[in-house]
């Protein structure tokens, strides 16, 4: 999900939206163990630019992925669509706790608590190393009690079993114990990622957002979630019109004003 920075920086900070859990919550993945601030700087990405990108990703998620309320009790009662969040700690070293990458994680955690409260349905911190308790002490105070109660910390051996209880195998990437292997990779080519690229292209090229096929695919993916027919009653199908309205001149102006979409975005493949 790297759209405001050079695509060759993708491997140094990976976050992506990918299908839904069994109840219809959008799945958000972030590989916090492989954030490499030093190499990002070499790619011309400052920590402030990276943080702005994170904010852009969150705004995109809320406007385009979490705009439709599913029928689970938590979302229906709050009239707010929540996300299922998977934070992958694989690759994190004990020395990272005092480094820039961990400070970036702390900053993102803080802004989520202040500006996006109660938007998480579940949070899984997966593939944690044996010493992760040290890192948890630095993150836990930034979370409110409700968020901490939703958070599960899982070792590598526990990860697949726990995730498959709430995510259908066909919606979970292979690396986390599922069977999904999107053509071109789940990280870059899930339908949500394609929609995000289409949005950014429409902004850069000052053209209307053409997304009917992508929205239709997302609708079909979501309809395949493990919901009973009674749970599905009363929910509206994703609206192509509403998504197109989100790409109106007002939204595009906001994106330009805060500087989240940069002209230097380019593919190096």
Automatic annotation (TrEMBL):
CRAL-TRIO domain boundaries: 5-184
PROSITE patterns, per database record: CRAL_TRIO
UniProt-listed CDD domains: SEC14 (cd00170)
Residue stretches in coiled coil: none
One Pfam family, short name: CRAL_TRIO
Top-level taxon of origin: Eukaryota
PANTHER family in UniProt: CRAL-TRIO DOMAIN-CONTAINING PROTEIN YKL091C-RELATED
Name this polypeptide is given: CRAL-TRIO domain-containing protein
């Amino acid at each position: 999900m790297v759209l405001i920075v050079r695509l060759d920086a993708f491997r140094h900070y990976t976050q992506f939206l990918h299908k839904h859990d069994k109840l219809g919550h959008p799945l958000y993945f972030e590989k916090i163990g492989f954030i490499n601030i030093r190499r990002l700087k070499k790619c011309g990405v400052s920590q402030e630019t990276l943080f702005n990108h994170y904010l852009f990703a969150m705004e995109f998620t809320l406007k385009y992925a979490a705009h439709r309320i599913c029928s689970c009790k938590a979302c229906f009662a709050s009239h707010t669509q929540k996300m299922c969040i998977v934070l992958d700690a694989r690759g994190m070293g004990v020395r990272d706790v005092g480094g820039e990458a961990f400070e970036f994680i702390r900053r993102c955690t803080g802004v989520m608590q202040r500006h996006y409260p109660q938007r998480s349905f579940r949070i899984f911190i997966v593939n944690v190393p044996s010493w992760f308790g040290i890192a948890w002490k630095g993150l836990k105070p930034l979370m409110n009690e409700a968020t901490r109660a939703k958070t599960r910390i899982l070792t590598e051996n526990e990860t697949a079993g726990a995730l498959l209880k709430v995510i259908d195998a066909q919606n979970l990437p292979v690396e986390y114990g599922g069977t999904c292997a999107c053509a071109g990779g789940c990280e870059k080519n899930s339908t949500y990622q394609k929609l995000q690229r289409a949005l950014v292209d429409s902004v850069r090229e000052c053209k209307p957002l053409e997304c009917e096929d992508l929205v239709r695919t997302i609708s079909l993916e979501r309809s395949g979630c493990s919901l009973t027919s009674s749970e599905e009653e009363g929910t509206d199908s994703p609206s192509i019109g509403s998504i197109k309205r989100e790409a109106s001149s007002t939204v595009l102006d906001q994106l330009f004003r805060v500087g989240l979409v940069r002209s230097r975005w380019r593919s190096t493949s």
